[in-house]
Write a structure and sequence with these properties.
Helix content: 10-25%
Strand content: 35-45%
Radius of gyration: 24 Å
Largest sheet: 8 strands, antiparallel, barrel
Distance between the termini: 46 Å
Structural class: mainly beta
Strand order of the largest sheet: 10-11-12-13-14-15-16-17
Length: about 280
């Protein structure tokens, strides 16, 4: 089986391809082709795809595009953060000349319209602000102000919406879903340990591993200590700083796996049915 792609080598260039193997074929997909050619006076080159910009602070993206030579940039907030998982001011989308399918190496006019949409808290939406105090009496304000019903708690941690971003206290629950079973990580800063177990594959055990150093915004290190005296360490951290919804775990062979937030109460119930082994 073969897969192929045609590359027009008209100048020096950088290129990247993604090769995917399936049961009956091999697919070669162009990630980008960046030709090292001189730009016209009114042209600018994109050095990232939209996917690369997402989740960065919009101010960083604005500067990156300005440094590339673009001049017509608009940043617009969307007030869609309700549960506090997404970082405020993080990029939701970036369109250039109405397109979001651009990739590194694409060339546009410097004055092409660029629209950056970034996330902000629902509570900061001007449309949700209460009436100005000068327009009502104190008694009216006390009676008419709506009761706050949104909880500061999050379903995957004992932390609240703000402290959960610090990644250094409380308890967190993560799950990676497999084809036939799921793997769980419970990160317990209160007891200075991390629990790992599987559910759905018949395994009735749970590993409890002590924390060594760090936090989830840098790298949290845990070390296994086996009965034969051997030791090995794992590192884990938020995929993006102060965004706890996505956990990356790296084992001793530098193989990484991705896990995502899951209901802490449910994870604890499953853990408590397991036989816990200390390492």
């Amino acid at each position: 089986m073969t897969g192929e792609v045609t590359l027009d080598v008209t100048s020096e260039l950088d290129a990247m391809y993604q090769i995917s193997c399936y049961s009956g074929s091999i697919d070669v997909k162009t990630v980008y082709v960046d030709y090292k050619t001189n730009l016209a006076e009114d042209e600018a080159k994109v050095m990232h795809s939209e996917a690369s910009y997402k989740n960065y602070n919009y101010k960083t993206v604005v500067k990156d595009l300005q440094d590339a030579g673009f001049t017509n940039i608009t940043a617009t907030p969307v007030y869609d953060i309700i549960w506090g998982i997404t970082e405020e001011e993080s990029v939701k989308s970036v369109t250039i000349a109405g397109r979001n399918d651009y990739r590194r190496g694409d060339i546009f006019k410097k004055n092409a319209e660029i629209v950056i949409v970034y996330h902000m808290s629902y509570e900061d939406d001007p449309a949700n602000q209460t009436q100005a105090p000068s327009q009502t009496t104190a008694a009216d304000k006390q009676e008419d102000t709506p009761k706050v019903t949104e909880s500061d708690s999050v379903f995957y941690s004992t932390n609240d919406r703000k402290t959960v971003k610090n990644g250094n206290s409380g308890v967190y629950a993560y799950k990676s879903e497999g084809g036939t079973y799921d793997n769980y990580w419970i990160i317990d800063f209160d007891d200075k340990c991390v629990y790992f177990f599987s559910d759905g594959n018949g395994d009735s055990t749970c590993n409890r591993v002590p924390m060594v150093s760090g936090d989830l915004n840098t790298v949290l290190i845990i070390t296994y200590h086996d009965v034969d005296g051997s030791e090995w360490s794992y590192g884990m951290h938020f995929d993006w700083a102060k965004q706890p919804n996505h956990l990356v775990v790296e084992d001793e062979s530098h193989f990484t796996t991705d896990s995502y937030v899951t209901d802490l109460e449910d994870a604890l119930k499953i853990r408590d049915e397991k036989t816990i082994y200390d390492y």
